[in-house]
Amino acid sequence: MASVQISNVSKVYDGGVVAVQDVSIDIQDKEFVVLVGPSGCGKSTTLRMVAGLEEITGGPISIDGKIVNEVAPKDRDIAMVFQNYALYPHMTVYENMAFGLKLRKFPKAEIESRVREAAQILGIEEYLQRKPKALSGGQRQRVAVGRAIVRKPKVFLFDEPLSNLDAKLRVQMRTEISKLHHRLEATMIYVTHDQTEAMTMGDRIVVMKDGIVHQTDTPLNLYNFPENKFVAGFIGSPAMNFMEGVVEQNGGLHFREKNSPLTLSVPKEKEDTLKSMVGRDVWMGIRPEHIIDAHAAPAQAAKAAVKVEVVEPMGNEIFVYFSTASDTQYVARIHASVAPKTGQAMEFGFDMTKALFFDKATEKVLR
Ligand code: ADP
Fold first, then answer.
1. Which amino acid residue places its CA nearest to atom 11 of ligand 1?
2. Which atom of ligand 1 sits closest to the CA of residue 38?
3. Would you say the CB of residue 45 lies under 6 angstroms from ligand 1?
4. Is this structure's pTM higher than 0.70?
5. pLDDT tens string for the chain (367 positions)?
6. Quick check: 304 and 348 in contact, CB under 8 A?
7. Distance, CA 79 to ligand 1 centroid (Å)?
8. Cis ω on the peptide bond leading into residue 107 (within 30° of 0)?
9. Best of 11, 13, 213 to mutate for ligand 1, by most ligand atoms within 8 A of CB?
10. Burial readout 311-325 (b: 16 or more C-beta within 10 A, e: otherwise)
């Protein structure tokens, strides 16, 4: 297995489209790294440059310490799994999986043993003689993964491999790929636009937007310590609430929502962070689980009068979409026993110890 270094890499397509800009990612041996971001952020381009399917405009990419910019894809010792599976329709599952090894002139017995082993790992032994069209989407996806496994590559690359599967199968394949990662102890780079996929699978996640890396960290660190408003809003579902407002000093420090009398007191431990921002515009970010029905909220939570707009029952909890006096909509995630009604006036408690603040101009988190 191998490490992968992407060092200040950029990609400019013909016509001047800057798809990737100064991207650096240091992927350790056996690590599972997920590149995530909205459509068009440059994650596939980055992966394709590692694979050698896209020429690199600037900056080196190394696999196992060796710069591969000029190395042909077939000589990079990587295997890629694509969103559309890319199986040969006229070949059986066995032939699809064996094809890459045959091209590389592996002995027949070795091919057979590798294909059988991969098929056993993936639970597709009984389909080896079928053609892809006689398989379900999930089975085809397993064949595509199997074709990568038999190669025993240094690095596995996955480009949105689960996008074509239904929701239930996606969750199942997610755990299967995670298990596979542990079993093979392989270095894996995985591209997705789905933050849940990223959060549940990655050892580390690289959050990209507009061709730029916004933050690289473990799932929990991204969730708890986002560097900026984009990362804070992208990671987490339902997404973090952002309240536009200003920092005021009146005895202690307060956050006042724009176009609204709603004032939330800033807890002592956040005062150092915010004292230089008095009179300045900021975004306050608060996750839905940190807005609580006022009766259940801890005494120190800042209380706010709200109007319930939409209630989404989830079984064990409910998502309550509510508005404040500013008419802005936010979402709280509260215990199902509270059962508010649409149109109801309520009091919610904001756990301000969990709130984050972002500079309005730079959108960077204030620490
Ligand atoms: P993602 O995988 O995050 O959706 P891509 O890496 O596919 O994003 O694309 C990044 C940017 O590069 C987008 O603006 C896209 O339109 C552009 N792009 C991708 N492929 C090409 C191409 N072959 N020629 C020109 N522009 C491209």
1. 19
2. 3
3. yes
4. yes
5. 699 999 999 999 999 999 999 999 999 999 999 999 999 999 999 999 999 999 999 999 999 999 999 999 999 999 999 988 889 999 999 999 999 999 999 999 999 999 999 999 899 999 999 999 999 999 999 999 999 999 999 999 999 999 988 888 899 999 999 999 999 999 999 999 999 999 999 999 999 999 999 999 999 999 999 999 999 999 999 999 999 999 999 889 999 999 999 999 999 999 999 999 999 999 999 999 999 888 777 777 788 999 999 999 999 999 999 999 999 999 999 998 888 999 999 999 999 999 999 999 999 999 9
6. yes
7. 21
8. no
9. 13
10. beeeeebbbbbbebe
